[in-house]
Amino acid sequence: MTNRTIGIVGGGIIGLAVGREVARRFPDDQVVVFEKEDRLGAHQTGHNSGVVHAGIYYAPGSLKAQLCTRGRHLLEEYCAERSLPYERCGKLVVAVDDAERARFDALERTARENGVPGLRRLDGSGIADVEPYAAGVVALHSPHTGITDYVAIARALGEDVEKAGGTVHLSTPVTALRARAGRLVVSTAQTGAAGGHPYEVDRLVLCAGLESDRVARLAGGDQAPRIVPFRGEYMSVVAAKQDLVRGMIYPVPDPRYPFLGVHFTRRVGGGLEVGPNAFLALSRQRYGRGSFSVRDVADTLGWPGFWRFAGAHWRTGLDEIRGVLSTRAYMRSAQRYVPAIGPADVTRAGLGLRAQAVGRDGSLVDDFVIEQRDGVTAIRNAPSPAATSSLAIAEHVVDRMGLDAPRR
Ligand SMILES: Cc1cc2nc3c(=O)[nH]c(=O)nc-3n(C[C@H](O)[C@H](O)[C@H](O)COP(=O)(O)OP(=O)(O)OC[C@H]3O[C@@H](n4cnc5c(N)ncnc54)[C@H](O)[C@@H]3O)c2cc1C
User: Which of 17, 78, 229, 294 sits in a 20 to 30 Å window from 320, CA-based?
Assistant: First the structure.
């Protein structure tokens, strides 16, 4: 009997949660995490809204619905145990006019089927009791929706992996994967240079976020789905107006898209943000306003699914571009929810890049996608609420890795 080595590609919240889960359940196994950046949580984990979702939106029975509910519980417990920031500030999902009522009613049915705790339907005066400055005809109030700091959580998970005897290699991009004699050989950018050897592992879990399609292909995975990056820009509300929102205020989302729409969100570190919008990014992992990567753009344009998606949704794309170019246009939609916060009350803040899987047929893949074959588990689509769900995704993945089977 030998101890196994479990390799994990990606030091975002999912890779680290999986690493911790393996270390907890199989203390004799050795966990090795490979992260290409010089710090943990450098991409989606460190550029999101920080919201801990309560499961309002997701198709009942889907992985998102199941793992978000379980994930929120686990995350609350974990934050309490590790003294990490966590605040249940609650959120309102607001319909601003009667035209939105049908979508709103459908959303309420979904939320109730998902068992969102404490959910209440509020009319105009009920809305004012929760959020005095919000406008709207009807709203759902989810008091259990919270906020946290996902980078702090990722770091804590990394510490847990190391305390359990695992290793986290930073600045170590995985460049090639191959099978050899029943094991998996992991080459990194350091392999071959100055005596750097490839690593050999027994199982691999690929949690590469914006690179998940490319890393899956290194392991022989299918071309589909392809990651198409979507930028999401935030605005920061000036100090004088920050108290106008107590928790979070969201629109009723457009069911054609997996994005939730520009919303008002409090941050655990203080401050109030508006965002994120959603439009096509020209780079997967660069955050400058004009960032462009020839390889990333070529990968997007070379994917037939992208053209099918673009052909069907170009009008929405034009609307989004207006908001990118002008703060006034950006705030026009946000001001429908909180009229007292206008373009003069915000400054441009950070942005995030979403890894959105797009099928060959142009569909934006909605649910989490987790593939398994030949000792490799590949997370191929883990958009929001994957940070909320991370600890539950880790349980789900580790349950299915077959690690309980007798060792060789
Ligand atoms: C704008 C925005 C807002 C969001 N808001 C929320 C929210 O409020 N609540 C919520 O639950 N979710 C939210 N999400 C989604 C959430 O952030 C992600 O689902 C989650 O962070 C995914 O984690 P991950 O570990 O899969 O990806 P990542 O955090 O992107 O981590 C992947 C890691 O893999 C590394 N990597 C890639 N390729 C290689 C390689 N070849 N070798 C080694 N390492 C590699 C990357 O450097 C990266 O660190 C949001 C996302 C965005 C972008």
Answer: 294
Q: Residue 311 domain-assigned?
A: yes
Domain with residue 202: its CATH number is 3.50.50.60
Ligand 1: residue of 9, 48, 191 to mutate (most ligand atoms within 8 A of CB) is: 48
> β-pairing, 272-275 with 226-237?
antiparallel
Q: What is the pLDDT of residue 2?
A: 66
Residue 408 is predicted with a pLDDT of 52
Let me know whether 29 and 120 are in one domain.
Answer: no
> Which of 45, 147, 377, 393 to probe ligand 1 with, by most ligand atoms within 8 A of CB?
45
Q: 75: which residues sit within 8 A by CB, 6+ positions away?
A: 52, 86, 148, 153, 388, 390, 391
**Whose CA is closest to 12, among 211, 199, 178?**
211
Quote the percentage of the chain above a pLDDT of 90: 85
Atom of ligand 1 nearest to the CA of 234: 1
What is the count of structural domains for the chain?
A: 3
Q: What is the pLDDT of residues 165-206, one digit of tens each?
A: 999 999 999 999 999 988 999 999 988 776 678 899 999 999
